[in-house]
Amino acid sequence: MEKSVIVKNVSKKYKMYAKNSEKILDLISPKGYGKSFYALNDISFEANKGDVIGIIGVNGSGKSTLSNIIAGIIPPTSGTVEIHGEAALIAIQSGLKKELTGRENIELKCLMLGFDKKQIVELTPLIIEFADIGDFIDQPVKTYSSGMRSRLGFAISIHIDPDILVIDEALSVGDQTFADKCLEKMNEFKEKGKTIFFISHSISQMKKFCEKALWIQYGHVEHYGSMAEVMPQYEKFIKAYKKMTKEEKKAFQKKIRKSRMSKA
Ligand SMILES: Nc1ncnc2c1ncn2[C@@H]1O[C@H](COP(=O)(O)OP(=O)(O)OP(=O)(O)O)[C@@H](O)[C@H]1O
């Protein structure tokens, strides 16, 4: 199997401060102030070309952080990410420039990827047609609804034809017709042997579309394997969590939070 993504011992640490003054002291003092919070802690996995991987995990477990790292939007604090090809991220808040119009965003993204004028002229109408947001295409993105931003982001990313596509919750804000259109495009991607990472809180969408599941549990990989293997275990965890009392949940969250913190 040809590898497309190799993630080795990746961690992402964020500094947290009890007070604003600690932040300033941390900048000027060699002693170091504040605590570190591990959004991701020692993540390792590999993806093959043609893999369609659902990234699952409860709120705050690190799915978006991992998506951003795979797509090269943010760097890891430590560890390595090897990407074979071009990776694109589709997320609700994905790299669209708010002050620019939709059309200008299309041009900018294409220029950044090194497309020439002829390619941009060819691609622009296809992207606009897919996004299907009417006259808003010539309005600044800051005037768009989250669904419209998602439509434009999806349309751009799918048409620039990346080798690795990371879709972070982008289908949850669009309507069903658009989601179906996107799933159809994603299937074409799959058939071309490209790699897709898919984050969705819709388990049924996940089951329908993904073959593998990467379960991120509070910053670490809990399980990585076939959907059939991982999903029942995840669902079992969710069921057990739901059954906990308020106090048990609080104690559990506290324990997790503690395990993700370290001194400075
Ligand atoms: N810039 C940041 N500074 C500090 N902490 C951050 C930052 N970005 C993310 N985090 C923390 O890292 C953890 C993982 O966040 P992330 O958004 O990756 O989780 P997620 O699994 O995508 O969550 P959700 O399902 O709610 O979207 C969270 O506890 C979050 O508060």
Automatic annotation (TrEMBL):
Q: Which domain of life is it from?
A: Bacteria
Cite the InterPro entries for this sequence: AAA+_ATPase (IPR003593), ABC_transporter-like_ATP-bd (IPR003439), ABC_transporter-like_CS (IPR017871), ABC_transpr_TagH-like (IPR015860), Bact_Polysacc_Export_ATP-bd (IPR050683), P-loop_NTPase (IPR027417)
Which key words are in the record?
A: ATP-binding, Cell membrane, Membrane, Nucleotide-binding, Translocase, Transport
Q: Which residues form a coiled coil?
A: none
Q: Which GO terms describe its cellular component?
A: membrane
The ABC transporter domain extends over 22-243
Claim: Chloroplast is one of the keywords in the record: no
Q: Gene3D superfamilies annotated for this entry?
A: P-loop containing nucleotide triphosphate hydrolases (3.40.50.300)
The molecular function terms in GO held by this entry are: ABC-type transporter activity; ATP binding; ATP hydrolysis activity
Keyword Transport belongs to the record: yes
- Give the family, as the similarity comment puts it: Belongs to the ABC transporter superfamily.
Report the PANTHER family cross-referenced here: TEICHOIC ACIDS EXPORT ATP-BINDING PROTEIN TAGH
Q: Tell me what this protein is called.
A: Teichoic acid transport system ATP-binding protein
